Hints:
The chain is α/β, with parallel strands linked by helices.
Amino acid sequence: MRHKVTVVGAGNVGATTAQRIAERELADVVMVDVAAELATGKALDMMEAAPVLGFNATISGGGDYGPTAGSDICVVTAGLARKPGMSRDDLLNKNAAIIRDVVAELVARSPETILIMVTNPLDAMCEVARRVSGFPRERVFGMAGVLDSARMRYFIACELKVSVEDVDAFVLGGHGDTMVPLPRYATVNGVPLPQLLPADKIEAINQRTRNGGAEIVDYYKQGSAYYAPSAAVLDMVAAILHDKKKILPCAVLLQGEYGFEDLFVGVPVKLGRGGIEQVIQLQLTAEEKAALARSAEAVKSLVQALPPL
């Protein structure tokens, strides 16, 4: 039986995600957007590439949620970007309202689906999706750590002039300035990073990782990253649909792990066909624990500022 993945949002992140999933033939993709004709047009454009690229998965697009029924996974990228003059609370309130409505539409048609949240502020939007859907934590979580870790891995590979395939790294915490890169757990073909680079070089990589999204925005001038975020979502979707049991850092509702309760925080998890199948608990130093606590506190303040749903 063919899988179905819904992507809500036909902007750069959503459309590129849909394209990647279809080209890998992971699933048929339904793309939904309030700008229905934009979603329809992008889907048609992608399908016209199918004969050239040789993929047989289908991509459809529009403004109707009807075709999303029975989706194995729903990826939510819809939402507003922060605009000049817009406060953090304004963005939080507007995107919370959007996510509330989107999730309600999705779960009404796909009650057994897995929700992957991408909309920012990510950790708070995961909480909105959890409240609206009523799903267990195994089936509602966020994409952030895969992206942040990929950026760190790339920066390490550049510094050492090695293949990106040889580099592993983890980034924990909230998706923002307070994220917690863990160079102690980074390796290059099994060799711990601290054995390969001095502390100042590692800290520079940590800082560039924290500023990874802002660096792209500065270059783009308008809009934000989408190639790497869509690739990160693809990694998660493939891990789920292929039941890979892959260890990836995701924003998950912690229930006592790492000392946090009922709060979405980025930590490594095992992803398989059931969604999150295990939360992996790393042994952290006192300094790492303190950094993760600061990150969790930033997430908590966002969640507390959420409007009633």
